[in-house]
Amino acid sequence: MSETELTRKYLELIREFIGGEMTAPEFERQYLDEFKSDRGNFPSGDAFDPYHQLFVAVDAYCSDPELRDEYDIDETELRETAAETKAQMEQRLETITGEAEDIH
Q1: Mean pLDDT in each 10-residue stretch from start to end of the chain (104 residues)?
Q2: Which run of H or of E encompasses 28?
Q3: Superfamily assignment of 3-102 in CATH?
């Protein structure tokens, strides 16, 4: 899978989450599944940073406030990180394709 295809796949997943088409627990499960299955496909160096940044946030997400500790994040923080990651991925996609991504 090319970096362009990989980036577009993750952007679609992030957009569905940010757009409210998927819950935080659904996003958590799907992102972790995708991340694990795409191990050998990620770009190297700085291009990997957005994927890893979001992985760390997803891993720190805890849906149950009663179980959440100082190292966990809630849904709002996860959405904020997803939005930041989306912007970084869109910028990277524009760099590698030479075209602005159709943002929806």
Answers
A1: 94 97 97 94 93 96 92 96 97 86 54
A2: helix 24-37
A3: Colicin D (1.20.120.650)
